[in-house]
Give the backbone structure.
Amino acid sequence: MPMVTIPNIFEYKNLRLLIAIPIALLIVGLYLSTKLVLDSSLSGGVTVVLQANTTVNTATLATQIGTALNVPAPFVVQSPGGLQVTIANNQSLANAETHLINFYQYKANYSAFSLNATAAQSGLQHSPGNQTLLTQLSNAQIGMNKSLSGMNLQITLEFANLIPFIPVSPTYNTTNIDKMSSVAQGAYTNASFVYKQKILTTLHGLLPFSTYSYQQVTPTLGKYFLSQVEAIIIVAFILISIAVFVIFRSITPSIAIVFGAGNDMIIALGSMVLLHIPLGIASVGGLLMLIGYAIDTEILTAIRILKRKEGTPEQRAYGAMKTGLTMTGAAIASFAVLFVVSLAVYVPTYYEISGVVLFGLIGDILTTWFGNAPMILLYAKRKAVI
Amino acid sequence: MAFIDYLRERQILFLLAIIIGLAVLDALFGGPNILHFGIEFIGGTQIPITLEHSVTPDQMANLTNILQQRVSTFGLKQVTIEGVGSSEIYVIIPSVSGSEINSTINIIESQGVFQGVVNGKEAINGSAILSGSVAGSQQQGLGGNVTWLVGFFITQNAAQRFAKVAFGQANQPLYLFLDRPSNSILLLNNSLLLSATHSTQIAQGDALAAVSSATILKNATIPVELMSANASNWNVLQGYFASHNAIYRKVLLAQDTPAFVVNSLRGMNYSLVFESTANMTPQFIMISASQTAARVPVIQAWPAIGLLSAPVLSPGVTNGSVSQSYQISGTAPLNLTPNQRLLFAQQQSKSITSILSGGSLPVKVIVGGPTTIPPTLGTRFLFVSFMAALLAVVAVSLVIVTRYKKIFLILPIILTALAELFIIVSIIGLIGTIDLAAVAGMIAVVGTGVDAQIIITDEVLAKASGQALRQGLESAFYIIWADAALIIIAMLPLLFSTSLVSIIGFSESTILGALLGVVITRPAYGAILTRHYSKGQ
């Protein structure tokens, strides 16, 4: 029966030359991945996803939105099914949030001092003229005044930052602390709403759409999520390395396999830069999938080459490649479906996951059969010679 | 080759049994409306809340509990509160209406309203208590006695008012309410009152007096209407409700109130607040006004009307003297073990502290801009996801058939993939939430799951029939087990992440898929193949 003829590359004399291919990819990937774009879930900011069928010039649209909102030009991605606009953090809003948090800190201090004052007053009723209590009272009153002026300053700064959204700052009464803090919180919440309306109105003015989803992430939260994504990837990588070592109990094959997984990830990140796919929280799923999945074919190859006895190592490697290519082909088929579907109907979660895995798997073919398999084959031959 | 032959393989029977079992569970507890779908699919809003400073996991659990309680006391159904990492909380509501989003935000931002009532008059309220002054403690005394104590300070004006209201009320209860309902009538099943009195041997007359004492408040008394079993006295009560809907706007009632009563009340334009049986049941204790006086019952807790505790006024605070500092204290019951006493005391002082602070959150929160997904978009996402899963199955089968040129393989591969999808959807939908990430994971499982089938196929097709074939299967399963273990290990850090909640579903699906693959579906596929090829040759 005629089979698709794939030459047995493992019978080439210069196996080492093959390894150069994945290493070259690794270097290009590393260079490209420095230019990776984060979406707002990781960098903070606003992401609006529009389900629109209109074709627009993304560069022009980005400039128009930037000018209208007075922010750096946003990152605009277009697909047949929709449009994703990622707008960087609004600096005024971020500053206002910082001042609001400071305000609450002063308020907490104020409460603590006023409690001290009451306790001292209450004590003075029982022992009038007690010097310690009098000192405590006057210290508490000084503290209260300081905290109050701190609150005043922070609320003024907050309102100043919110002027683009709330031109007339709300009034408040410095004698009613609770009302004051609800005014401070209310202004921030309102400003967020105003900003949202402003963004949506701007977008409506530039292109027609009816269905949209709106997501806002503060810069602190974005940074936090990014650190979590990094931590999870690193932990997964370490765990996988340990597991691979436990399975093979020798250094070289384990290093070859772990190198393969890392290389796939770098290639995936590089491809994302080339294809303008931003990295978001969802991508972490894809990256982990890649770590676990890239290893599938590599384990198969290593086990077939090192632990089986039929035929020559080269033949076993070739057999493994046939099985492995089918496996990767099947996986590419299902992720390609997800990728195409997510492009057709814009679903960022699917887009971010399938993009990473799809291009990672394409990279995996090169990494495994030109890099990983030759490395293990060389190792097997050397062991056989010894 | 009869179909029935395949049923002789226990692996295939096992897979069928699991599918039938889950189908029954789905039918009983699931169905398209009850399998839990995330807001990406049903539409909804996610409101991020930033905490002023980061908190420990314990404090986070406490915070989410308080918020959950607060939103449910306001009758907001299906609100999910999710802790994210150590300084963020997501509040998720299945609605995109602006007014519902705003009212949820208001509830989160607002504090509860605390009221202390003595003898039908408000003696103290939330604004009287100096913020930050409430502090609880427990103490282990002689003879294993455990006492608890909550101290607090009140403002000068409030102190004078308290002294006046409490004057002469020694040994009377101070009813502590949190969010006491206003403009409300309580429709109480007589059986609940009877069961409460039966267990404590209280005469019904005394019980009714206690109910009246707990619900009375100047200008804001909550009328209690007693309903007989099966609402047999509804014709009498109906008249009362019909004539009072101008004064009262809400009715507090049990969840199991007969439908005709509910409809009748709705017809009278009352808004209805449904409460659980536990919340509707008053809890009595016996107290006596002096050492010689007879013991009478007092309601110490009745969550339906916001009554959370009822400490007794000590004679020292009822003689008219004005003080700004107060304590609420108690002793754990002696019939508990020493450890239980300590827990009881801790729990009591915690709950009193929380009531006096107006149920306020221990950490200040900042409500961020909500993320909204309209239901139409959700429906579209759901349809697209369903299509993507099916297309993935088709695409993968095509790859397999092209590679092996054996049409026979297509059916087992499609069937095992669909069986796997069905099992994952059922399990996650019944005990978790199906969100975009979970579905992406399921589609990933279609592609990765089939890998194991390819390894099996290659090993089985390569071997001759009989003994060698079984050997081939065994060596295939070694590789499959290793692969599954590695996928699971790679996903574990995400599964246990407390912060990336939006994507955890992906790890749930893929881990579940890998487990199912090695334990259930792949052995079944292996059995089909072995049977086919060993018989066929």
